[in-house]
Amino acid sequence: MGAWFSENGLLVGLAALDGLSYAAAVFMVAVGLNLVFGVLRVLNIAHGSLYAIGGYSAASLGLFLSSRGLPEFLAYPALVVAAALVGALLGPPIERLLLRRMQDHEPVLQLLVTFALFMILEDLQKLLWGVQPVVSDAPVRLLGTVDIPFGADVIPFNAYQLYVLPGIALATLVGLAWFLRKTLAGRMIVAVTTDREAARAMGIDAAKVTLLTFTAGAALAALGGALASPTVSLVPGVGAQTIVLSFAVVATAGLGQIEGAAIAALLIGLGRSFAVYLEPELEVVIPYVIMLAVLLVRPQGLFGVAETRRI
Amino acid sequence: MTRTQELLLALLGAVLLLALAWAVPWLRFVLTVALAKSLAVFGILLLLRAGQVSFGHALYLALAAYTAAFTAMLIPEALILLPVAAIASALVGLVVGLFVVRYREIFFGMLNLALSMVFYSLLEKFYSITHGTDGMRLPPLRFAGIPLEGEFQGWVLLILAVVLALGFGALVRIYLASPMGQALAGIKTRETRLEFLGVPARRVLLAAYVLAALMAGCGGAVLAMTTRLVTPALAYWTASGELVFIAILGGAGSVFGPVIGAVAFELTRVYAAALVADAWQLILGSVLLLVILFAPGGLWGMGKALLSRRKIA
Amino acid sequence: MSALLSARGLKLAFGGLKAADGIDLDVMDGEFLAIIGPNGAGKTTFINMTTGYLKPQAGSIEFDGKPILGMSPRKIVALGIGRSFQLPQLFTEHTVLENAALAVAARSGIWSPFAPLMRPSIRQEAEALLDRFGLSPVADRRADALNEGARKLADIAMAVALRPRLLLMDEPTSGVAAADKMAVVETLVRVLRESRVTAVFVEHDMEVVARFADRVAVWGQGRIMALGDPQTVLNDPQVRRDVIGELPQEALHAPT
């Protein structure tokens, strides 16, 4: 064990740091997916495409700003602005024009509408941004690296992935938990999630709550993509990859769990990045193996609540 | 529609497909692929009857395709490959089924998706065995000892696919009308009642799941023999999504749905790809949206509605 | 008369709520036993425990001398205990006839995947069953298109199709329009007497209880407060004050 660790300790440290930043991005997507599922009762397959479009938009905006010779630090607000734009421009029309019309349809049709949307958005990305990798790493470059002492070694790790990504994810987690529990708007979302009809009877405008929640969820996915964009090169298919990963996070955590999603994202993010460093063959498998193992033991997910039907 | 009418319609459809393949030779390949997929979609139809959506059903298609590819290296005989691949799929379906039939709705869908993704990544990562994303080529095959080449190969595989589609279509039709099939629909609406009738709902679902895996297995074998190349993409979750897509496009209310849907899907894909190379997904997605929004009964439902309107007029 | 079902010392609490707090009850072969009591007293819980849907934390239940605790609903059904539900559990996308046919097929154990559900033998038995319940006129309607009275009867018909020896009915008349109520109950009692089924039914309508029950058990806070013939129990001043006074308003409507 000791010998193994001194040989691989550095890798383990790197994997942990990588996994943390990866988990942060995945959490942003999964938590939005969960919120939207709560009010609409449909897992939005196109949610991963919003992540990808958020990433592409942020990269394009960053590259555009620097091409105009504007100060480089503007790359940071650009990330947030791009995400907000994607959420605001795509969220409301998707909810209004598609999902709302489907509300009384069979669940499989609701699901398939989001699959159709996914197919459309995947090709739109290719048409807009091409199939070559898009890279905009200014936000990572500007902050430089931090030397993390690790035993006898020092790991240079970029500050962006160390502080910014996990920091924003943590702020989102805390902010969202506070918002849902303490504010009137948050309570309304919870009410619609728990019992749509009862919420309506209490005078809550369920349609409006749904629209706003969907838009917020879309913006969170886009923000996840925007924040991750400086650390990866964007290629077609990233949306398809992201959505199945967020499915795994949501199912592992249990439907509707916000804090649970954070823990599941950490579990899956760390698991995946340990695999990347130690057993690369298993990289893609690990998240699903974690999910399968969890559901085998707890069919409703780690934090989900088992329902008994009244008969 | 009476039984005789349905039978006649099915035979008419088969003749029409063969005539189309004869008139436009390059469509033979497309139609064979479409029919192979329709076999897997029959299984989606069964599971939809129970209210369950599998977003991982392509697992069984891919599993059979790879089984066929590996077996072909030893015995390149179509009449052996088909049953071997189908039985392998059904056996894995039985083992996986014992686990997944305990879950419903989203968890059922997600578990199937996760398992298919595990299989996908194994295919992709174990390069030394599967050649990763490059995939595996099948050697030249024989059918009852006769080498499959050129025109002959195209016709043999198309006719095999037509026969399988007719056979499984009839089987699914009979199955759905039987107590097993009707109980399947009971899982969708009132599973508690099934249990209080003394009917083991899980076993009812398991039987359908294994049958679905078996049919997807036949589809996978035909697909592998037709394309002669199998890649991990066959198992990716989007491939499973396509199968559900086809079920809804054709119409989940009838056994004609899967075949109509698969043919429409493949033809649209081929023509869309020829029209705009980079946007065929966009076109397919839009078609799906329009169908769901304006004809939720799928193409079959649309055709039926048109027919009955004409009768009234 | 011997006891067909005997429960001893059943206990089950949901958090702080004691749904069963030491239930001892014998159901005699051939009797009609009514259970009355306020909402939340644990009446449905008793049915759920007897049919395997809930497991008590303590106690024992014997059916025909055999312990049945811990068995699944399916096993218990197979032994001959049927139940109907407060919220009718019908296959909503099937017709009433198909619902009945599925129940008949379930009992006769015919599960060949190659012969249709609606084969003559099953269809005839299902039609005869619906006829006995007066449901023939709605046989071809989808189950979700029925009124509450018909839904309740169809729900009970499916339980009766299994030919149980003991039938547990959870509020067979709740939600049934007042004008139909006595007709529904009379149909029900006639069929059950014909089939010689022992019946336990939860009921809020004292008129129904007084007319049809052989014995009445009064439930309160997870315990049996009184047990005896309807005449005595329903006229007991304490029962009148504690239970009948607390019943929901609808139960006080005099039947017309």
Automatic annotation (TrEMBL), chain A:
Primary location: membrane
Keywords: Amino-acid transport, Cell membrane, Membrane, Transmembrane, Transmembrane helix, Transport
Topology in membrane: Multi-pass membrane protein
Pfam assignment, any one: BPD_transp_2
Gene Ontology cellular component annotations, sorted alphabetically: plasma membrane
Signal sequence bounds: none
Protein name (record): Branched-chain amino acid ABC transporter permease
Organism: Teichococcus deserti
From TrEMBL, chain B:
Presence of the UniProt keyword Ubl conjugation in the record: no
GO molecular function, one term: branched-chain amino acid transmembrane transporter activity
CDD domains reported in the protein's UniProt record: TM_PBP1_LivM_like
Annotated transmembrane regions: 33-51, 58-75, 81-101, 106-123, 155-176, 204-224, 244-267, 279-300
Keywords: Cell membrane, Membrane, Transmembrane, Transmembrane helix
GO cellular component: plasma membrane
Name of the protein described by the UniProt record: Branched-chain amino acid ABC transporter permease
One Pfam match: BPD_transp_2
Localization, UniProt: Cell membrane
Membrane topology summary: Multi-pass membrane protein
Record InterPro entries: ABC_transp_permease (IPR001851), LivM-like (IPR043428)
Species of origin: Teichococcus deserti
UniProtKB/TrEMBL annotation, chain C:
Gene3D superfamilies: P-loop containing nucleotide triphosphate hydrolases
Keyword Nucleotide-binding annotated: yes
GO molecular function annotation: ATP binding; ATP hydrolysis activity; L-isoleucine transmembrane transporter activity; L-phenylalanine transmembrane transporter activity; L-valine transmembrane transporter activity
Alphabetically ordered keywords of this record: ATP-binding, Nucleotide-binding, Transport
Every ABC transporter domain range: 5-246
Organism of provenance: Teichococcus deserti
A GO BP annotation: D-alanine transmembrane transport
Keyword rRNA-binding attached: no
Name recorded for this polypeptide: ABC transporter ATP-binding protein
Record lineage: Bacteria, Pseudomonadati, Pseudomonadota, Alphaproteobacteria, Acetobacterales
Pfam families from the UniProt entry: ABC_tran
Gene Ontology cellular-component terms listed: plasma membrane
InterPro entries to which the protein is assigned, alphabetical: AAA+_ATPase, ABC_AA/LPS_Transport, ABC_transporter-like_ATP-bd, P-loop_NTPase
